[in-house]
Each structure stands twice: as C-alpha cells, then as structure tokens.
Write a structure and sequence with these properties.
It is built from 5 helices and 5 strands; from the N terminus they run βαβααααβββ. With 126 residues, the protein is α/β, with parallel strands linked by helices.
Length: 126
C-alpha cells in the first residue's frame, strides 16, 4: 500500500482554499493530501494507539463482519461502528457490504503528514 498523505490546516484556511478551488482561483497540486485535519490533536485522535491496534487486528484477522470484529476487539459495537466510519471518512478503512454484513478492510497502513505554519493555499491572500 502506498502511504496515505494527510495534511493539517486550520479550518478557516481550509475553507478559503476550498472556495478558491471551487471558483477556479486555485488549482490543487497533484500530490496534495487527500485527507485534511484541523490540528495535530485531531489527527492524533483518529490515528490513536487504540485505533492503530484496531487496524492491526483487522489486518491480522480479516474479520468478515463488524460482529466478528467486535468479538475480536472486545469493543462496544456502537463505538466500533463510529470509529470505523470516521476511519473510512479519512480513507484509512473501507466498509463494504457483503451478504448484508459490513466488512472492514484496511486501505492505509502508512501515513505521510504535511503541515507548516504557512501551509495553506499559496495564491490566496491571508
């Protein structure tokens, strides 16, 4: 798997950037991150040690349903479902329906993080 590139940018800068892209004033670089977090803290919550252990559990055991993953992980099903949906939004996990069951698949095992104090849309006014 190739590394998932993630970026960290303040929400106001992200909004400005998105508007600039939509209006054609800014063209997103080809190698731009696909996933954005508002802070290192929010990224750390998604990629926490507990969630990394969950990803490893999925990789090692290839569970065929959330019920099986719940049994393997000893996590509350509602919490597990919320966590997996968040990981799916971030491109880390894919949830597919097979025979009426949601099957989790890990899509990213390595991450490349880009951020900086001035990391935003270079052609936009501050």
């Amino acid at each position: 798997m190739k590394p998932l590139k993630v970026g960290i940018m303040s929400f106001p800068d992200y909004q400005k950037r998105t508007i600039a892209i939509a209006s054609g004033k800014y063209r997103r670089p080809k190698d731009d991150p696909k996933v954005w977090f508002e802070s290192i803290k929010s990224m750390a919550q998604v990629l926490s040690s507990e969630n990394q252990a969950l990803l490893k559990l999925i990789l090692d055991n290839n569970p065929r349903s959330l019920t099986e993953l719940q049994r393997l992980s000893n996590r509350n099903k509602a919490n597990l479902s919320r966590t997996l949906k968040k990981l799916e939004q971030c491109g880390v996990v894919e949830l597919t329906k097979e025979k009426g069951r949601l099957v989790p698949t890990v899509k990213a095992t390595d991450f490349r993080v880009e951020f900086g104090l001035n990391y935003s849309c270079p052609s936009l006014p501050n």
